[in-house]
Amino acid sequence: MMADVIRYDTVKTGVNQEGTFAAAKSFVTKMGTSIATMIVPSLVVVGAATGQSVGRQGLLLTAVVGGAFTLISVAIYAMYREKEIRSVIRGNAKGAV
């Protein structure tokens, strides 16, 4: 998917920006990892008894939040216009920009 988007952008703009896309992907990946590392431990302790590090409510809450993030990612992916992107790439059959 990322390779198609990069190629699509190159065909549309005439400028190869692979480095910019790679940097953006790396940034988003690191942000996602950082947010998950912050959110999960914070949620797991919800409802924990004194002296315990894990609470039942926290585990359920973690599952709900994880499910919500999954649904959000599916919704975002559903907006990906694969047919349009592939047709533009195919229109540039020789690979020249």
Structural overview:
The structure is a single chain. The longest helix is centred in the first third of the chain and has 27 residues. The chain has one domain. By secondary structure, the chain is mainly alpha-helical. Helix content is 74%, strand content 0%. It is elongated and about 65 Å long.
Write a compact overview of the structure shown.
The protein has 97 residues and is mainly α. It has helices spanning 2-13, 18-44, 56-78, 82-91.
Biggest sheet overview: none
User: How much beta, percentage-wise?
Assistant: under 5%
End-to-end separation in angstroms reads: 19 Å
Low-confidence stretches: none
Give me the strand/helix succession: HHHH
What oligomeric state is this?
single chain
SS field, number of helical segments: 4
Number of strands: 0
The domain count comes to: 1
The proportion of residues forming helix, as a percent range, comes to over 70%
What gross morphology would you assign?
Answer: elongated
What is the alpha-carbon Rg in Å? 20 Å
What is the structural class? Answer: mainly alpha
Average pLDDT number:
90
Q: How is the topology of this model organized?
A:
Layout lengths: L1 H12 L4 H27 L11 H23 L3 H10 L6
Quickly list its features.
mainly alpha
